[in-house]
């Protein structure tokens, strides 16, 4: 680019990942000031610094300037390079924190991305690797990102606070994305899940399964919850257990919910029965919200629609999460794109909560590194 792209300025530590990911894709530098400036411990946290290092690994020629206290960050993005990368994530946040952003960037790198991430695979804050594998990967396939090398594999599980998990993510490269028309959510046809336990009795997973089924069996017979008990070195460094549930509809959309036990030494002990029941209720809540994309992946779907060919894309979502609303504002500042938002109140054909139909015309973003299809 011959001309210096117009730099954007923000204040505060919120939505740091959104700003850096959109900056990388649009090529516009971003300056973020007052990052926890009034905090007792000011500046960037370890997990944010680790995220910036990860961006540096998958790009070529990025310029990152951080002041001494870590309260100001200037990021001038380089070219998305990709290739084979290994990264040790901070154990303060889950691998999902890093993976969500990689899902946005991976289709547009120069060399197909194959990345090994180490850290916490399942925690109570970020989407777990199980949920991203079950919901975000099928979503990317709708946009035409698919192939032999498209996979997300959990090699080891790691629970907080120790971590010790490991996942491998590989993604093929695409020149352009297909526009999508996801307006019919369909009806729930089956529920699948994964109850996992590490460094505790394997019986814990079975107790979770029984309690989750006690609620879900009232609604649908086709339920299968796998149990996954990892042993030895594959079980990470800390004990814990949890459950992730995914409901699949007749039109091929996936809605998910998940819960994990409290980290060792923090909070009260959780009974596996309670965890299973609560997770089942969370899934029912997510199904009530409905839409063609669950609340975890709303922003990913909207980003891929924005970057699609210059054609109309439509998606029906449940109520927008605050994170998604802020993401729409950022899309406007980075890509000057506005969505047409129509509310669809729940009526005869739409069950559950009020829905939102999001429509936009893609900006025709193409992967510059990939000259031939």
From TrEMBL:
Keywords: Nucleus, Ribosome biogenesis
Domain RNA 3'-terminal phosphate cyclase insert: 183-287
UniProt cross-references to InterPro entries, sorted A to Z: RNA3'-term_phos_cycl_insert, RNA3'_phos_cyclase_dom, RNA3'_phos_cyclase_dom_sf, RNA3'_term_phos_cyc, RNA3'_term_phos_cyc_type_2, RNA3'_term_phos_cycl-like_CS, RNA3'P_cycl/enolpyr_Trfase_a/b, RPTC_insert
Cellular compartments per GO CC: nucleolus
Molecular function per GO: catalytic activity
Biological process annotations from GO: ribosomal small subunit biogenesis; RNA processing
Record SUPFAM superfamilies: EPT/RTPC-like (SSF55205)
Localisation: Nucleus, Nucleolus
RNA 3'-terminal phosphate cyclase domain boundaries: 10-341
PANTHER family, alphabetized: RNA 3' TERMINAL PHOSPHATE CYCLASE, RNA 3'-TERMINAL PHOSPHATE CYCLASE-LIKE PROTEIN
UniProt family annotation: Belongs to the RNA 3'-terminal cyclase family. Type 2 subfamily.
NCBIfam families reported in the protein's UniProt record: 18S_RNA_Rcl1p (TIGR03400)
Task of the protein: As part of the small subunit (SSU) processome, it plays a role in 40S-ribosomal-subunit biogenesis in the early pre-rRNA processing steps at sites A0, A1 and A2 that are required for proper maturation of the 18S RNA. Activates BMS1 by promoting GDP/GTP exchange. Does not have cyclase activity.
Subunit structure: Part of the small subunit (SSU) processome, composed of more than 70 proteins and the RNA chaperone small nucleolar RNA (snoRNA) U3. Interacts with BMS1.
Listed name of the protein: RNA 3'-terminal phosphate cyclase-like protein
Gene: RCL1
């Amino acid at each position: 680019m011959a001309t210096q792209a117009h730099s954007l300025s923000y204040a505060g530590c919120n939505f740091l990942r959104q700003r850096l990911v959109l900056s990388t894709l649009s090529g516009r530098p971003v300056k973020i000031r007052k990052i926890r400036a009034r905090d007792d411990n000011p500046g960037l946290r370890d997990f944010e610094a680790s995220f910036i290092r990860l961006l540096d690994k998958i790009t070529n020629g990025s310029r990152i300037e951080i002041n001494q206290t870590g309260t100001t960050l200037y990021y001038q993005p380089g070219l998305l390079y990709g290739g084979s990368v290994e990264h040790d994530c901070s154990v303060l946040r889950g691998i999902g924190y890093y993976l969500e952003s990689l899902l946005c960037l991976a289709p547009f790198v120069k060399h197909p991305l194959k990345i090994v991430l180490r850290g916490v695979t399942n925690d109570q804050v970020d989407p777990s690797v199980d949920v991203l594998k079950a919901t975000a990967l099928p979503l990317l396939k709708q946009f035409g990102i698919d192939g032999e090398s498209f996979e997300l594999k959990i090699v080891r599980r790691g629970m907080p606070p120790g971590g010790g998990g490991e996942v491998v993510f590989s993604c093929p490269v695409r020149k352009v994305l297909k526009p999508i028309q996801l307006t019919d959510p369909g009806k729930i046809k089956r529920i699948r899940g994964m109850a996992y336990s590490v460094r505790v009795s394997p019986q814990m997973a079975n107790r979770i399964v029984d309690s989750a089924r006690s609620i879900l069996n009232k609604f649908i017979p086709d339920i299968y919850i796998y149990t996954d008990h990892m042993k030895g070195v594959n079980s990470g460094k800390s004990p814990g257990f949890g459950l992730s549930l995914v409901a699949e509809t007749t039109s091929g959309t996936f809605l998910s919910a998940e819960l994990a036990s409290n980290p060792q030494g923090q909070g009260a002990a959780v009974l596996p029965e309670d965890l299973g029941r609560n997770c089942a209720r969370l899934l029912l809540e997510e199904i009530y919200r409905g839409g063609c994309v669950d609340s975890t992946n709303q922003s990913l779907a909207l980003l891929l629609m924005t970057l699609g060919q210059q054609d109309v894309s439509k998606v029906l979502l449940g109520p927008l999460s605050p994170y998604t609303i802020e993401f729409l504002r950022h899309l406007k500042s980075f890509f000057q794109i506005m969505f047409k938002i129509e509310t669809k109140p729940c009526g005869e054909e739409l069950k559950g909560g009020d829905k939102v139909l999001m429509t936009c015309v893609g900006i025709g973003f193409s992967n510059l590194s990939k000259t031939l299809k």
